[in-house]
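Incident log, support desk, overnight shift.

02:14 A customer reports that sequence design results differ from what the structure should imply. Their input is reproduced verbatim below. On-call engineer (initials T.W.) acknowledged and began investigating.
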């Protein structure tokens, strides 16, 4: 693998030029500013995605690791520029024009984005990126023995749909045993990430990382209270249905109780014969036979 083709210098120069342009604000056309920035933003986003992809593909490659370190160091500076440009474009005298280009939803997202960054957290963002990369590096290098061979965690996952129940169970156990040997390191990474993200939240004026995380993920249309209600609805309506399906799956597999190493076999369960995936001409479509269940009656209301 070669160095990823990305002209860091020219991108940085263009960001600086845009910054100077917007700070001077000499009758700039907001559409032109947006188009120049959008081109830059897409370039950086593509670079970021490719770096992450190549790091995940080969955790042992030194070039990929070097690209990851460069990304961790430089990305916070691009986030700083992006926050400044979003603030500029959202100013009252430009907002209407910009909203006509990008839409209401994007404007709402930008409004949330500019509350998730301040120069005080740039070093914390670099640390967060490094810790996240270190986690994936650790997970990617784990090896587990299985029947005389060594497998990565991804390799073990290939046995999840094997028809041999004993092999599925052994592969599952091998994976968890391998992870257990890394518990100290995994716990340390988790602890460091929690501390880092909590510190960022406090620097930005949030009580905890939770409300900050919603905004960083672009969740501008709902928050923790709505998600809490959604979880309650899942527990009430979906969990009982899932339990019914799990019992049916256990019966189909011929086991008394469905175990974690059986779950991936859902798509390989016997299907009713017939021209349709949902069953033969005389078969009821999926879920229809559960229509009388109080847990799903409302969910299926209107299903013709």
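02:41 Re-run completed on a clean worker. Output:
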């Amino acid at each position: 693998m070669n160095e990823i083709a990305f002209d860091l210098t020219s991108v940085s120069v263009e960001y600086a030029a845009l910054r100077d342009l917007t700070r001077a604000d000499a009758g700039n056309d907001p559409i032109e500013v947006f188009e120049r920035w959008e081109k830059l933003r897409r370039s950086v986003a593509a670079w970021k995605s490719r770096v992450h992809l190549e790091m995940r593909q080969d955790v042992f490659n030194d070039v990929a690791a070097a690209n990851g370190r460069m990304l961790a160091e430089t990305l916070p500076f691009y986030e700083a520029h992006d926050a400044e440009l979003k603030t500029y474009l959202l100013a009252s005298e430009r907002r209407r024009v910009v909203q006509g280009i990008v839409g209401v939803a994007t404007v709402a997202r930008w409004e949330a984005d500019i509350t998730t960054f301040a120069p005080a957290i740039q070093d914390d963002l670099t640390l967060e990126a490094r810790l996240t990369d270190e986690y994936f590096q650790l997970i990617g290098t784990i090896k587990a023995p299985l029947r005389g061979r060594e497998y990565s965690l991804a390799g073990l996952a290939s046995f999840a749909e094997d028809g041999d129940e004993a092999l599925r169970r052994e592969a599952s156990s091998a994976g968890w045993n391998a992870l257990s040997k890394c518990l100290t390191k995994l716990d340390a990474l988790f602890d460091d990430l929690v501390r880092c993200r909590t510190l960022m939240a406090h620097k930005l004026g949030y009580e905890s990382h939770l409300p900050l995380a919603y905004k960083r993920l672009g969740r501008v249309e709902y928050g923790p209270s709505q998600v809490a209600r959604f979880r309650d609805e899942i527990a009430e309506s979906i969990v009982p249905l899932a339990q019914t399906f799990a019992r049916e799956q256990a019966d189909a597999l011929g086991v008394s109780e469905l175990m974690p190493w059986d779950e991936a076999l859902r798509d390989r369960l016997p299907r009713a014969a017939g021209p349709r995936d949902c069953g033969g001409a005389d078969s009821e479509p999926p879920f229809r036979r559960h229509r009388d269940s109080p847990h799903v009656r409302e969910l299926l209301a209107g299903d013709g």
